[in-house]
Amino acid sequence: MAGFEGTKPPVTDSTPCVSRRQFVLHGSLATIALVLAGCGGGGPTSPGSVSLTINLSDYPALANVGGVAYVSSGNNPLAVVRTGSDTFDTVSRICPHAGGTVNSNGSGFTCPLHGARFTDSGTWIGGQPTSSLTSYTTQYDSGAGTLTIS
Ligand code: FES
What is the pTM of this model? Predict the structure, then answer.
């Protein structure tokens, strides 16, 4: 083998060298990632749309601005919030983290499972990191006294 006498042969193995410390660090991160992935999935999820019409008179809590009513569309628990005299927000109560059912806390929603917090319109604002609640279009027909949620 001319050319290699007295010198080390070129390294042809492309496997990266990993020290014990790197292995322990990366192994720990991988374990944490697996735990987080397991914690953040597998629960119920919110559908992208719903089709529901409710009568406001059936939900006295919605008579005043800031009122919150729980309704459901199939297996999807929803919260309707009166945000103004003619405006309403509707969000799924299914927490996007792992499927807990969020509850109204008077100024938004809190998930009882790991503490994620959301605004009345479903925007995540703290606690367990996750995405925002699924929100739905809500149309108010003042003449009929109905809300159509889709
Ligand atoms: S399910 Fe974990 S914060 Fe809601």
Answer: 0.73
